[in-house]
Amino acid sequence: MIKAENIRKFYGVGDSKAEILKGISLEIEKGGFTVILGASGSGKSTLLNVLSGLERAESGSVLYEGENIENYTDEQLTEFRKKRIGFIFQQYYLLPNLNVDKNVKMGAQLAGNRDYGEIIAALGLGEMKNKYPHQLSGGEQQRVSVARALAKKPDVLFLDEPTGALDEETGRLVLDQISKLQKELGFTVIMVTHNANIAEMAHWIIKMNSGRIAEQYENTAQKTAYEIGW
């Protein structure tokens, strides 16, 4: 379980200092699919960054199985992210000088995993292993970024608007593959989006507004990526 307690986060200094997260507390069940929903500026991406250890909070705690990562040194936090956390963003961030196989292998090596071929196959990238990012479509590049993140065999997969740059058909395909792999492998998914339709795929939905949690509830009627609106 991931538990956040009274998380506060500020950006800026002096008169321009703004409070982005205003005392956030929440719990996220292990092995579930949680969507953090909110408009631009609601603080949802900042919350994702704090929960994943990409950024530190000014105050409060973020506990993984009872251990507060806010107390980690920078070195401990880096090691934690390498071994336990996977990231997928709206932008693909693939290394242009590496082919598909080596981009995915890089993710696997960060966590010391050697077996990543099954992830490449599961995402339908087998015939593209020797292609470079510039030879791939946007959807194919995003599938490579998914494979790279999952090749680490993370405990938790964080996604920040993963379909934001994709067309509907490709977006549905990527979400469907993530959902199927999550059920098969059992990792926890925490996804940030402004798209309320995507939230219908999740077990739990957290709605944010102006740096606070406005509502959170369990979704008892999950839909697949091909059943939701777009």
Report on the structure:
- With 230 residues, the chain is α/β, with parallel strands linked by helices.
- It has 6 helices and 10 strands, in the order βββαββαβαααβαβββ.
- It has helices at residues 44-52, 74-84, 100-110, 117-122, 138-150, 168-185, and strands at 2-11, 18-28, 33-37, 59-64, 67-68, 85-89, 156-160, 188-193, 204-209, 212-218.
- The strands form 2 sheets. A 6-stranded mixed beta sheet has the order 6-7-8-3-9-10, sandwiched between helices.
- The longest helix is centred in the last third of the chain and has 18 residues, at 168-185.
- The two termini are 31 Å apart.
- The model has no long low-confidence stretch (mean pLDDT 93).
What descriptors fit this protein?
6 helices, 230 residues, alpha/beta, four-stranded antiparallel β-sheet, globular
